[in-house]
Design brief:
alpha+beta; four-stranded antiparallel beta sheet; Alpha-Beta Plaits
């Protein structure tokens, strides 16, 4: 079922893309964003899962997750964290995702080491190289314009 939905989504996007007038290539922007000839680049996708630490108190957990949110803001302002968000409850215990603005798994690990919830093992991280649009980070300035309140 998932493959069928993905195929349908891909077909709709492809048809829509062909129907749209292609914007003029901006070489300076492509270079600034690190885009290849396809307008893409490599990132690190992080899947955050429920961690192995089950011994913290509610107060400790709350404090660690407050630090987690603050750390995400720091990484975002440094143009390291491009996408972040929680996942709905699921059987795999996935909690959220990050897309980090690096192609290096080792560099991504050093950035994750600044996260209190990851360090305390409240969250475990799986890291994968992911190829996506180099323009992905360009949405970030608009987030503040649509965010009414913060966490």
């Amino acid at each position: 079922m998932r493959k069928i939905l993905f195929t349908i989504l891909f077909a709709v996007v492809a048809i829509y893309s062909q129907a749209q007038e292609k914007p003029k290539y901006d070489e300076a922007l492509a270079k600034k964003l690190g885009a290849d000839n396809y307008g893409m680049k490599m990132y690190v996708l992080v899947i955050l899962k429920t961690g192995s630490n089950t011994s913290t108190t509610k107060a400790q957990t709350d404090s660690l997750f407050k630090g987690h949110m603050s750390n995400m803001e720091v990484l975002s302002k440094a143009n390291r964290l491009i996408v972040a968000g929680p996942m709905a409850k699921n059987e795999k215990q996935y909690r959220g995702i990050f897309i980090l603005n690096t192609k290096s798994i080792d560099e991504a690990k050093t950035w994750l080491a600044t996260d209190p919830a990851v360090n305390a093992k409240l969250l475990d991280a799986e890291l994968y190289n992911w190829y996506g649009s180099a323009a992905l980070a360009e949405y970030l300035p608009y987030h503040d314009k649509v965010q009414k309140s913060s966490f």
